[in-house]
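Input record (one chain):
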Amino acid sequence: MKSISNLSAKEAISQALIKCRQQTLALFSDINEDVFTQQSHPDFSPIGWHLGHIAFTEAQWILEYLAGYAALFPEYHKLFAADGLPKAQRQNLPDFTVIKDYLATVRNKVLKYLESAPIEQQYRLWWWLVQHECQHNETITLVRQLHKVNTNNFYLNQSSIKTETSKIIPEMVEIEAGEFIMGNNDINAQDNERPAHKIYLDSYAIDRYPVTCGQYKEFMLADGYKNSQYWSQEGWQWLQTNPISQPLYWQDASQWDNHPVCGVNYYEAEAYANFVGKRLPTEAEWEKAAQFETKVLRNWEKKQLDALDNQDNNLFNTVPVNANFETKTIWGCYSMLGNVWEWTASWFMGYEGFEYYLYPGYSQVYFDSQHRVLRGGSWATLPWALRSSFRNWYHPWVRQIFVGFRCAK
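The corresponding structure, as predicted from the sequence alone:
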């Protein structure tokens, strides 16, 4: 396969669309009807809805908006539009084969249109579309995991997970005071990543690794879930209403001690940080610490893309935080991309000069001081949506995503 950098714009988009779709459909190879149509959690739509929504969005923005075609399947508008039905009403779905045919019909027309599309004027939208599918691919993956949690069948084949026996030392790295460029103006950047801008930060320290299961276990054994002194008022109120004693995706065996803790909400992360006398980083602190040398990052990105050529090589779980020493940032931090999302202390807001794209509902409606920023991507994030400037956002009580954290001070 030719290097992406040597491909024409249309070839690169076509390959990304095709490879991303292969990854999406692979998630449905072993799905039964109940998992396809039923919610696993009230906050998330069934995976079958996400599959139909991918096709609907592709048709809406490429075939209708760009190409000017009439709607292919107008009967699907209410069902698969993001604002069409409440999540609880998205379970009455066509069969998988019907939705798969819907996807194929739309995709064939999209690729045919791409051949003659004025790509120079449309490039940003096409890459937005690739990332849209990436994001729903990850949501499909987590909904599948929630179905497993609900049936007490979460634990994966542990023999396939690489383990490291040396204990992770919870050390921190010092980040020097100074300016850095925050955000991203590249063609593939989402609206909330723009505009790139200079920002000054005082010196601070940040964890070299994400907090591991072994470290978090100390918080649990010290009755961290029972001691209000570690929790914010909002977090303690949430905990009383939702009594829990461990992360959602908790795996207690010692071989998981070096894996990042996964399935904690913002309140749990904040409580642990208080327990160890630290705090959560702001998203600016996180992004500065996640600066990579260009050569290191490009080599890593290529490996991520190459890994998609063989689905069986993907672990579908976290890896030890010290498993990949090739991804060290310029400051000496590890595991900042593609293991678990990481909570930050920042509310999700637009940068100064923000302009929405393609529509206010993608980012702008969430600038409500109710959503915390997450950074770094997870093991389920596809490469086209995996970069240090990418911003994710969730309510602080959500713990169903593949999320952990690292601390600062």
